[in-house]
Amino acid sequence: MQPNHIRHKPQTALTRERELILACPQFRSGVNLSRIVRLAGCAGIRQMTVCGNTKIDAKIARDATGFVEIERHRTLANWLKKIRSESFHVVALEQVDRSQNLFDYRFQRNTVLLIGHERLGVSAEELSLADDEIEIPIYDQPFSSSCGVNLMTQNLYETPDDLTTGAKQTAGSSSCDRRLLIIGGLLLFAIVMIGVLIPPVQSPRGPAKRTVCSNWMRQLALAMLNYESVHGHFPPAYTVDENGRPLHSWRAQILPYVEQRAVYDSIDFSKPWDDPVNKKAYETDVEGFRCPESKAPNGFTTYLALVTPNSCLRPKESCVIADIQDGTSNTVTIIEVPVSSAVHWMSPFDADEGLFLRIGETGFQSPHSGGFNAVRGDGSVYFLRNNTPADVRRALISVAGNDNEVLEDKLK
Fold it and tell me: Are 334 and 374 in contact (CB under 8 A)?
């Protein structure tokens, strides 16, 4: 039986809204931006953030013009910082040396997909704010690349005149159109795949647990930065009483910044962390302080600060941004330790240099295969391999060790 062609088939309703926002820099071409808007609409993406005043052509974007909500900003960097503070995961569609294959990448809920400029790609500043980078593999090509890279490097533009005058195209421009069609199809495919691959809420397994762990640590990093923004300095590793005895950990001090204000308000900070008056807080298991693969008792955490006289978090005293002369991206603040070194989250005891240097030894490893998560001063989370050399680890501890050349040579 011959099938009947349906010119305008009714749209397929989504079982749940796409939990994805597209973010674009200021494009040179309104055609490119309009096409992305149209593709977003086809994939059921309702939100886009764009920069500049590049116009969207309704003839190209079609119905998506009224479907996709467009939010405009002067630059992406500040918006990306804000959206990350709201627990969004930023993924850059860009080809870099650590880009992951789209098909192997596990997307999270509440994701921002960052698309690069046609010619310049994703800027260095924007990349520094991305949690991960992905690329779409193009087979039978010398290199795997993302559709964003194609748009950047092939310099493919169409003008509104090309679309309206019906002018005869050259062979070269016809080839250009075919490539643009492929690129547009890849972008649509990526958006749809991301919508499909963002998992439903469920108990994570295997490698996904490492991602959840990384996200928890990223929330701690953001909380530290928010604390610094409010107080003008990072929290001390622990507070002390009039006799210099440790009272409360940095984890207790950042509770308001990880949406645990009620727990924070229940603590008497003038009394020690394990005083009976603080029993209610002590018995509270704060989810964000616990790796999903941790076998530690309830209330215990494997997220410890690096505490030395030369680290960002120091005994009894606070560090300011200006103290971090090696750069926040070259300084580790919080690490994930083996379960045998777990402490109660209220405890004012953390990790020293010796513990940091031991992680990865036989019998003293994190639950994650091959390494452990570490937070840097800029808020990013890095997976350190178990075989990371001792001199690199020492360089990561110091805030002003003038030892960045060690990192440049060995931390790749």
Answer: yes
Strand bridging mode 371-376 / 332-336:
antiparallel
Please choose, from the candidates 302, 217, 300, 220, the residue with its C-alpha nearest in 3D space to the C-alpha of residue 258: 220
User: Does the structure show a pLDDT above 90 at 53?
Assistant: no
Q: How far apart are CA 92 and CA 53, in angstroms?
A: 22
Q: Do residues 99 and 121 touch, judged by C-beta distance below 8 A? A: no
Residue 237 per-residue DSSP state: S
* Residue 132 near residue 93, CB atoms below 8 Å: no
Give the residue carrying structure tokens 């616990």.
Answer: 290
Give residue 115's identity as a one-letter amino acid code: I
For residues 344 and 152, the model is more confident at 344
Polymer length of the chain: 412
Angle between helices 171-197 and 30-42 (to 10 degrees): 40
User: Nearest Cα to 333, choosing from 389, 265, 253, 250?
Assistant: 250
Alpha helix stretches (DSSP H) within 321-397: 353-358, 390-397
Task: Please classify residue 200 by burial: count the beta carbons closer than 10 Å to its beta carbon, then call 0-12 exposed, 13-18 middle and 19+ buried.
Answer: exposed
The per-residue pLDDT for range 6-42, each reduced to its tens digit, is 655 566 665 556 678 889 888 877 877 888 888 888 7
How far is C-alpha 11 from the chain's CA centre?
32
Per-residue tokens: 235: 């929290």
Residue with tokens 């309703």: 13
Q: For residue 220, give both structure tokens.
A: 């701690």
- Please state, in angstroms and rounded to a whole number, the distance separating the CA atoms of residues 91 and 82: 15
Quick one: tokens of 246? 């440790």
The answer to whether the CB of 49 falls within 8 A of the CB of 22 is: yes
Q: Residue 199: what residue type?
A: P
CA 76/CA 410 separation, integer angstroms: 31
